[in-house]
Amino acid sequence: MQDSAMLEGKVAIVTGAGGGIGREIAIAMALAGAKVVINDIGASLGGEGQSAGPAEQTRQIIEQRGGAAVINGDSVADWTSAQRIVQAALDAFGRVDIVVNNAGILRDTIFHKMTPEDWLAVVNVHLNGSFFVSRAAAEHFRAQESGAYVHMTSTSGLVGNFGQANYSAAKLGIAALSKSIALDMQRYNVRSNCVAPFAWSRMTSAIPAETPDQKARVAKLQQMTPDKNAPLAVYLASDAAKGITGQIFAARHNEIFLMSQSRPIRSAHRGEGWTPALIAEHGMPALKPSLMPLDRSQDVFSWDPV
What we know:
Blueprint: E1 11-15, H1 20-31, E2 35-39, H2 53-64, E3 69-72, H3 79-93, E4 98-101, H4 116-144, E5 147-152, H5 155-158, H6 165-185, E6 190-197, H7 212-222, H8 230-237, E7 248-252, E8 255-258, H9 276-287, H10 297-300
Parallel strand pairs: 1-2, 1-4, 2-3, 4-5, 5-6, 6-7
Antiparallel strand pairs: 7-8
Helix pairs in contact: 1-2, 1-8, 3-4, 4-6
InterPro entries: KR_dom (IPR057326), NAD(P)-bd_dom_sf (IPR036291), Peroxisomal_Beta-Oxidation (IPR051687), Sc_DH/Rdtase_CS (IPR020904), SDR_fam (IPR002347)
Organism: Aliidongia dinghuensis
Family: Belongs to the short-chain dehydrogenases/reductases (SDR) family.
C-alpha cells in the first residue's frame, strides 16, 4: 500500500495540531489521504492565551499540499467543548474515524513547590482532555463499528522525570486510559494505542541548558525533529494496524520501541502469612534484587539518537 493511500476516505481529529508533533501528525495524515480536523486553541506552553494563528498555519500547509482540513478552536479540557470538536468533524466531513489525543501544556515545578492550580491545569488538558475527546468520539466509533485512537503518552510518566509530577501522572494515566478503551471497545472493532514521542519542540524547549551535560543533552534532543513521530501515528490510525491495540510504543528519531507494561516480576510467599518483621527479615531481601531503580527517562534512553 502506498503511503498516500493509507488513510484514504478517513476523517481524523488531531488535538494540539497548531505546532510541533501535532502539526506534523496532522500534515502526515492529510498526505496519507485523511481529511483532518485541526484542533488547537493557540495557547502558550503553560496554557494561557488563545490564538487562531498556529492552527491556520497548519491548515495552509495541508491545503498547499493538496489536502483537506478544517480548524476547531475548542478546548479539550471541557466535556461540552470536546463534544464540539467531534461535531466539527461530522459537520465538515460527515464522519470521524481517527482521534489523536496530542494537546498538552507544561507547568514544570519541583513537587514540593507545585501548586494545586499547576496540577489541575496539566491534568485537565492531558488526561481529562484525552478522556473527553475520546469519549465524545466513542458513540460514533461504536455505531460504525470501527475507529482508532492514538494517544500521546510520555516516558516522563512511563519511566520518570524531575519536576513533572503533574505531567508524569497525567501521561501514565493516559496509558491506562488507552488500555481500558482497547479492552472495552474491542468488540466494536475499535483500537486504542499510545505513542511516547521524542522530539525537540515547544514542549521540550524549557529543558535547562546551562551545564555542559545539559547542553549536550539538548543538542541530542534537537536532532529528534517532531516529524519523526508522524509515521508511527499514521500507521496506528490505519487499517494496516488491524489487530494492534492496547499497546504502548515510543518513537525516538529513527527508532521505534514497543514499551513494556506493568506485570509481576518477582514474588515471595509464606504459607503462614506475613508480619511486618518477617517482611523485613525475609520478604524484602527476596524481592530487593528486582527493585526498580530510581531512574529517569534520560537514564533509560541514554544513547545518542541514530
